Amino acid sequence: MTLKNECAIWLYGSHARGDADLLSDIDVLVVSDNFVEVDSITSVLPFPSPLSITQYSWQEMQRMAQYGSLFLQHLHLEGQALREEGPVRGRLGRLLSRLPRYSLASRDLTGFYTVLRDVRRSLNSPSHLVFELATLATVFRHACILGCAICGSPCFSRFDPVSRLIEYMGLTSSWSKEFPALYEYRLYADRRFRRPPNPNAGTAHVWCDRTEILLDKLEVRINDFNSSLSCPNTIHS
Fold first, then answer.
1. Tens digit of pLDDT for each residue in 189-211?
2. What is the dihedral of CA 59, 38, 9, 183, to 10 degrees?
3. Contact (CB, 8 A) for 209 and 136
4. How many Å apart are CA 2 and CA 36, to the nearest integer?
5. Cβ atoms of residues 196 and 183 within 8 Å
6. Strand, helix or coil for residue 231
7. What are phi and psi of 163, to 5 degrees?
């Protein structure tokens, strides 16, 4: 099928890496300045699975590239072009090849701290525990993805960023082993997993404390990283 418009369709995530499992969506990026029908997207996919479609315009992609978007770094590291039409053939690849280092790490860290404070305040309401545990899982994993990126070892899979950063930061190794149980709440919230065992506030408090420890250590790394952005000739071990 020939796609209308200046459209690029890329595959990323677990199916692009080759480690997809029964819980995996097909993560697809569509870059176009006009709406693209889902049927046009599914026609270029090599396998059936639940779709998770993200669409940006070319102008939005240019803006994201200016600050070295981690999403674009993910695409550069693992993405695969499925279909690119006429005048945009190769355009996204060229954009990804010129990405600068990520410059919004401090902003992200502030956001993580804000969400963590919100979760702590919400733990007095047991009816919200499933949602709060899912939120903690998301914050912890995204903080690890950010940490891996600024430490020069980018990783975007489901659990590897967690185990990699925990080891790099010298944190307790049992956290890596226990994180998949926490992440079940995220998968459940996304309707990709059966309901996990009944949550308890104790588990939530433990992961709040762990997340805060991780963020505190990450803040130090981010400060060093930002200093290296200001002084590009500085070498950090």
1. 888 788 777 788 899 999 999 99
2. 90
3. no
4. 12
5. no
6. coil
7. -65, -35
